[in-house]
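Aim 2, interim progress. The first record below pairs a target sequence with its structure tokens.
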Amino acid sequence: MAWYGARTFYRWPSPESRPYEERVVLFRARSLDEAVELAEREADEYAGEGGFEVLDMVQVYRISDGDEEVGAGTEVFSRLHALDVPPDEFLDRYDSGPAHTGAVE
């Protein structure tokens, strides 16, 4: 069983700005396809609990073959962008304004 990071996307029901959310969640799976299935199932559960809309995209990244330790400093997701634009323009495309982050304790 390998470790996978799965990136999923949501739209919040907030009446004023309806923000979007991106999440990266870890899974252990036998294959990429199984990791996608697990991510889709978890996304549906998460969205149902929060009243969010699940957007139709899942991106999965293989982290390790399963025998390597996953912990602090482990890369859990990476995506290359093949864009021929200056760095400031690239960052402007992905800076969506103030970010709201938080941890559940």
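The second target in this work package is listed in the same format:
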Amino acid sequence: MNELVQRLSSGEHSVEASLRPEKTATALKESIDRGYVHIKFTNTSGGTDLGVRLDPEASNLQEADFEHQTGRVHLVGNLTLNYVKVRCIADIELASLEGKGHLEPVES
């Protein structure tokens, strides 16, 4: 297995919502509504920014209050990283747009 995939698949890692042009809870909500978010694993060399196609069935927005930027979102989605199919799982606090996440290799 690829070294980066292996490292991000063991344990929890610091992540943040990677948003442009501005890093706000509203911008995160717009990305979630489109079904595609960017999650950045911050503890890799230069950070690893991943584009994640969300799985609405597995993700959970029940604890999120986007208007007041409180609570958190549980985001789950699939992507391919270095030719390995993986599932990205991230819990992000709306106040800071930071949280914890990890990858899970997906059997093809």
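The mean pLDDT is 96. This observation will shape the mutagenesis plan for the next reporting period.
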